[in-house]
From TrEMBL:
Limits of the HTH tetR-type domain: 25-85
UniProt DNA-binding region: 48-67
PROSITE patterns, A to Z: HTH_TETR_2
Species of origin: Nonomuraea pusilla
Lineage of the organism: Bacteria, Bacillati, Actinomycetota, Actinomycetes, Streptosporangiales
Claim: Transcription is one of the keywords in the record: yes
Protein name: Transcriptional regulator, TetR family
Keywords: DNA-binding, Transcription, Transcription regulation
Alphabetized GO MF terms: DNA-binding transcription factor activity; transcription cis-regulatory region binding
């Protein structure tokens, strides 16, 4: 039997705390889902809070209960997108046994994911513009960038690359893959992705200690 302490006031009705928590989470997920759809379709600047709450079927008060501002909502959407890309990279890389192969297919997986127009708009175009380069970079390093650091360090330990090249390689690869992803976003040639993957593989293979 539920006790009084397990109930909380919600408007004119009372309900178990667990039910309220579930409803709050559904509201939050609806806001993330609809704002992500709108941000990816129209871009951050073209989307207003009124449009988001209308699409999500909630009030502005409900939005502000979860997010302090439109920027805070976008930050949550960006983190969601970046984590999904990181998960794709991890799944692809973990399917290979050799660390060098993990590095190559992980970088390729990033390029593949970045061809998704929704990911391009939110992660590569609006992300740095809305949050600033420093914060965007920190979020990137905490998600997909973390895999890059881990696999490069593994390669150093295995003697596959010199230790002095580890940090420069991490930054060079991060910059190169992000720039390639932006280029692919504006490309109209379907063969550019395959060419980018091939070039990336050749570039990485040239660094391997034989």
């Amino acid at each position: 039997m539920l006790t009084y302490l397990q109930y909380v006031k919600d408007g004119d009705s009372e309900m178990p705390q667990g039910v309220r928590a579930q409803r709050r989470e559904r509201t939050r997920q609806a806001l993330l889902c609809e704002s992500r759809r709108l941000f990816s379709k129209l871009g951050y600047a073209a989307v207003g809070l009124s449009e988001i709450v209308s699409a999500a079927g909630v009030t502005k008060g409900a939005l502000y209960h979860h997010f302090d501002s439109k920027t805070e909502l976008f930050r949550a959407v960006l983190l969601q997108v970046q984590q999904e890309v990181a998960d794709r990279i991890a799944v692809t890389a973990d399917a290979r046994e050799e660390p060098w192969d993990q590095l190559i297919v992980g970088c390729q997986a990033f390029l593949d994911a970045s061809t998704d127009p929704a990911i391009q708009r939110i992660m590569l175009i609006d992300g740095p513009a809305v949050l600033g380069w420093s914060e965007w970079r920190a979020m990137n390093e905490a998600t997909s960038g973390r895999h890059l650091v881990d696999v490069v360090n593994t390669l150093v330990e295995a003697g596959a690359i010199p230790a002095r090249q580890a940090v420069p390689l991490i930054h060079l690869l991060s910059g190169a893959t992000n720039e390639a992803a932006l280029w692919l976003a504006s490309s109209e040639d379907p063969s550019d992705l395959a060419n980018a993957r091939e070039t990336l593989t050749q570039m990485l293979e040239s660094l391997r200690v034989r």
